[in-house]
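ingest -> fold -> write
write: protein_1
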Amino acid sequence: MANNEYPHKKRITVYLAGDSTVSEYSSSYAPRAGWGQFIQRYFDDTIVVKNAAIPGRSSKSFIAERRLVSILKQIKKGDYLFIQFGHNDEKINDPSRYTEPYSTYKSYLKQFIDGARAKQAIPVLVTPVERRSFTKEGSARNSHGEYPTAMKELGLEEHVPVIDLTANSKELFQELGPDRTKDVFLWLKPGENKNYPNGVQDNTHFKETGAQKIASLVLEGIKETKLVPLQNHIIK
């Protein structure tokens, strides 16, 4: 009886902090989607996903806009905070967003970690998902420079689990190759979709099918890093 009366007692909330590759989109942007849109479907009903990711944000600008403060007001003991930044931290010509991999990037990420831990929540670092970038020979390229390495270094220093989505997504894109990755990313021919009448060739953002593939890589990462109790709630 007690469980039915207080179902929220058992609930674990997974907060997502990130950029456009994680965030949710309205139907006017379809089929553009972030992986955070699809992760809920992989969990049983004791897990609630709150996607706070916003397009265009870096670790620095997300904090400056008090978006982390907003998450920390709600997050509670036993919840998770997944943190994926990098795409916009790389924008060296934009001082409001740019961070340097081994100094400011790490120090802003540490604010997410410290904030979650102060509320007895569990921080999880997620290295930035790769862009669609290939050599002439068809080899998938690294598109994030030192940022993934810096994040993994911080994970070791702070004893925070790291899901290496950079490596896992690169492996997937290598497997698919230059042509088939167009089905993952937001590539559309003119007239193919009413939201993109002139077509689009976007090597950063995903179609819904691609975002689902990336979400499943995040799930694999949860299992690889043995995030308990979260992994126990993945629907088999």
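write: protein_2
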Amino acid sequence: MPGFWSILADAFGLIFAWDPDLLEIIGLSLRVTLTAVALSCLIGLPLGAAAGAFRFPGRTVLVVLLNAAMGMPPVVVGLLVYLMLSAAGPLGTLGLLYTPTAMIIAQTLLVTPIIAALTRQVVADLNLEYAEQFASLQVGPLDRIAAYLWDARYALLTVALAGFGRAVAEVGAVMIVGGNIDHATRVMTTSIALETSKGNLELALALGVILLTLAVIVNALVMSVRASAVRAAYA
């Protein structure tokens, strides 16, 4: 078996050589993750803003469910999506199981509660400051939500980046609903698990390096956004 440094050198060789299989896996991973995060933001941002800005029947239950869903095991989400999309499920006729679309659905269900719950907290803090002013100006609900989302845009961008970090590292749910099919549904996390079990450590390590690099980039972006928010607050 090759030594660690030999495997590491071969892994970087795959990266710098722009290995086609490596690029295909990375491309699919980013496409699935970015689509899921975009959908999660479309759902989670207004939902979280409404829960943070207004009092309505069932709000407490909604907040509890959102907070609980943040810690939902990914394999459970994957199982639920699998049951919905399987031939015996209510959406089985759509033929979405073992496709990138199924993976996007699973990741969206995982990330949306995170974005909604964090958005609710951000907007709730703003609401303490602006609620009376908006009430005196008779600002409508939709305008109030839009104002909160715009005012908290830096913090919410951090929330979206956190959702991306959560989605790109997901393995359990996407493996269940995607099947880890070569040239079809194989993403970075599932490929790392498969290639490691096969003994193809060079490709697994190359993907691991890319995944770690993405994690560093996301964290750097989060820090940059926070710094920009602080500068904007004191501008």
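write: annotation protein_2
The radius of gyration is 21 Å.
Residues 11 and 17 are 10 Å apart (CA to CA).
pipeline exit 0
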